[in-house]
Structure formats: C-alpha cells, structure tokens
Amino acid sequence: MQIIGHGPAPGSGRSISARLRGFACLAATVLLTLAAPPAPARSPVPDADHAAAVEQEVLGILSYTRWPAEPPELRLCVVGSADYADDLLAGATQASGRPVRSRRLTPGDPRIGTECDVVYLGALGEAERRPLYAQLVDRPILSISERDASCTVGSMFCLQIEDTQIWFQVNLDSVARSRVRINPKVLQLGRRRTPAP
C-alpha cells in the first residue's frame, strides 16, 4: 500500500517515528472532534415580520374558505405554543370586512369542537394532537398548523416558515373529510408552493 502525503521532502531529517507520532496526534484530534457533542440546534426567532406574514397567509386561506352557514364573524382559536400567532391574536379583519375574533385555548378544551370556526395549531405533542383532531372530525372547522413539516395527518393547511419565505402545504385527505369547502385555486397553489432547494 502506498500512502501519498505532503510530509517533508526526502533528506529533511524527519524520522519515520516522528511522522508516526504526527499521524497519531492528528488521528486523536479527529476522534475527539467527532466524539464531541453537537452544538444545539438554533430555533428560528419569532419576529414582527414573520407574525405579520403569517397573519396575511392565514387571512388569504380564510378568504378561499366557505362554511356551511357563513358566520358573521370568524372565531379563530390558537391552540398550543405558537411562535407566529401574535398578530392573529391581536384581532384581524378579512378583506370582505368580516372580523376575525381570536383567543387562546388549551389542547384539551372541549370548546375547540363547538366554539371555533378556525383552529390554528402551534407546538403540540402527539398525545395532545390525536384527541384534538378527533374533536375536529365532521365539523365545519378549518385547521391550520404552524409546526407540521410532514403535513400528513390532521391539519388541512400546514404553514412552512423559513427565514425568507412562508408557504404552505395542503393535506387533501383532511380537506376532503372536512365540512368546510376550499376553493380549488388555493389547493393548487398549496401543492405548487414548495421550498426552494
């Protein structure tokens, strides 16, 4: 086996044992580096720009949604720890002039299934998500999730929030099982909007 490296030129006086010690030190350094615990991942920092953009995205989705009986005001419930719902909680108005009244509810609150037209989900554990989704089945409730990268179970819309853009995925199964109707234009838009490579 031939090892090619950038050691000293022949005749430089460096012995083979000195070279082996150098390789041993290098190998030890690499092993210590690999064994060190990884640096903790940094969570995105919520800021006013993201909260305002999320509000606009949610209001856009609401404008393409129709309820069996259109309420004079939409009741939006924020459930779980949501990083970007501050502007929604401050109150909003749709372009049509219909107000959106928002409030926080805990994951186990029975009012979620009866007093919410829209449910905006933040961070929830699996044990909290499953019974919550059971409350939404066969009800005219639009569900939007802030933290659901896979978007395969539960929420109808899953916001994907990155440093420079906000886009959404659509869970067509959840849409089909819901009693609200979504304009096909927004469904096509959701399928097309994918993160930049």
UniProtKB/TrEMBL annotation:
InterPro entries this protein is in? YfiR/HmsC-like
Q: What is this protein called?
A: YfiR family protein
- Organism equals Inquilinus ginsengisoli
